[in-house]
Amino acid sequence: MALSPLHRYRILIADADVHLSKVLKTMLESMGFNNITLTKSGADALEILKTSPFDFMITEWDLDHIGGLELISRVRREKKISDPSLPIIMLTGRAEQSDVMTARNYGMNEYVLKPFTAKSVYSRLERLIESPRNFVVSPHFVGPDRRFKGVPPAGISDRRVMSVATVQRPEKLLTEINENTTAHIWAADTALKKKLGAGTSLSSLITPAAVDCAQAAIAAISSESLLWIQENLNQLVSLYDVMMAGESYTLLPANMSDVALTISSRAGTFGFTGAAKVAYMLHKFCLNILRTEKKLHQVITQQHLDALKVTLSNSMQHKEPSAANEALIAELKKLSDKLTS
């Protein structure tokens, strides 16, 4: 029996959340991909790319040693990377529009939010393979063409140039990146499409039924995921105790924000929407508002933690979100919004 064309693709996943990266790997394998490498370190991902060719990379924003943004930037510009036009998907819990724009400016191809689904990941893979973008090389930007409509933002007008040339890989592109001082657009690379084979589309290999099967593979891990989320909640409670003991430190709000974002990503991916909402609100509160010495902020933090405990308890007991829970979430949002108005 002939192997699926999907076996020809090599995928690198860089994510500090080892649990979710394994979930993503399981989901991709359910779709038919089988050549997948995992790392939680941006530095390790960079070294892997220097020694082995990959067809695309999926990376988180927050990684060990080197962050996702720096990783993208270095992939685009370092001489030892064999393919600086490597398609890159940013898969992250950071949901603000400013985050999306920042990642685009660093040269990522696609942006997928955690919590992710099989459908959301598949749709981005389909874009990369079926509709590759032209590739821009300029002194201030290296990455896929952003396809701006109208006037481009200030400072990045050189991303749009009139001439399009044929990409010669890898030497010519590397030369352009490292030596050329003028902006240039190179025609989209169709190598990923060619790997499917003549007349074959990705949708013919990964059907809606296959996507549903991949989503079911995620659901099968949901009971185990509650244990991971409970561990994160325990971390949050410990950080809250530090705050209440008056031993707070400069990075405490950022640390609480990071843990809350992890809970939001994990809970939402496994369908625990109530907990995901509360955790994301806590993430934003800790990141943008929290002053650990303020009594009102301490109270609001405690209310978020209480709401998380309730919603997670309901999830463990397979209870539907109650009207009381929804009212509590709405009240938390109202309190946070007051502090930012």
CATH class of the largest domain: Alpha Beta
CATH superfamily of the largest domain: Response regulator
- Principal-axis shape equals globular
What kind of oligomer do you see?
single chain
Would you report the number of β strands?
Answer: 9
User: Could you give the distance between the termini?
Assistant: 63 Å
Question: What is the CATH fold-level name of the largest domain?
Answer: Rossmann fold
Order of helix and strand elements from N to C terminus: EHEHEHEHEHEEEHEHHHHHHHH
Question: Averaged pLDDT, please?
Answer: 85
* CATH architecture classification name of the largest domain: 3-Layer(aba) Sandwich
- Range of helix content: 40-55%
Provide structural commentary.
- The structure is a single chain.
- The protein contains 14 helices and nine strands.
- The chain is of the alpha/beta class and 341 residues long.
- The protein has two domains: 126 residues, Rossmann fold (3-Layer(aba) Sandwich); 120 residues, Four Helix Bundle (Hemerythrin (Met), subunit A) (Up-down Bundle), CATH 1.20.120.
- The strands form two sheets. It has a five-stranded parallel sheet with strand order 2-1-3-4-5, sandwiched between helices. Strands 7-6-9-8 form a four-stranded mixed sheet.
- Strand 6 and strand 7 form a beta hairpin.
Quick synopsis:
The chain is of the alpha/beta class and 341 residues long.
